[in-house]
């Protein structure tokens, strides 16, 4: 019995045979998925909203609302975590059979810390993107100034800096 090393191509490849001559002849890609979907047996959602601690069944240790002082709350939770870890050490020495309650408290504090940090991720991503775009603008302005002044890119380092590894790896300037 003969078997192929590779499976045959899917039948829809024939729909793209005239794509070079007429790009509109190929079918349009399907629209993006909205809502929930299942992948490998697990349910996922396309919403980027961070579920609240209550939705996850976890008690929230910091105040609710949009005006949270993240720095203050993170410091407070960190101090509380340190205190609970010291109490856990005392419990392990004096009453080893009662350590489970302290571990639950520490777990609750960690979950609250992680939730606070995860709620800051969108702000961090936005700030990082703004910083990257500002650096790109500075490099491009410097390149334009060099072209106006010298007629070519004088400041190679600033403009092509992100590509240094590639340039020397492939031997363009070596």
Automatic annotation (TrEMBL):
GO terms for molecular function: transcription coregulator activity. GO terms for cellular component: core mediator complex; mediator complex. Keywords: Activator, Nucleus, Transcription, Transcription regulation. Its main location: nucleus. InterPro entries: Med7/Med21-like, Mediatior_Med7, Mediatior_Med7_sf. Transmembrane segments: none annotated. It is found in: Nucleus. Pfam families: Med7. One of its GO terms (biological process) is regulation of transcription by RNA polymerase II. The keyword Transmembrane does not apply. Belongs to the Mediator complex subunit 7 family. Component of the Mediator complex. Component of the Mediator complex, a coactivator involved in the regulated transcription of nearly all RNA polymerase II-dependent genes. Mediator functions as a bridge to convey information from gene-specific regulatory proteins to the basal RNA polymerase II transcription machinery. This is Mediator of RNA polymerase II transcription subunit 7. The lineage of its organism: Eukaryota, Viridiplantae, Streptophyta, Embryophyta, Tracheophyta.
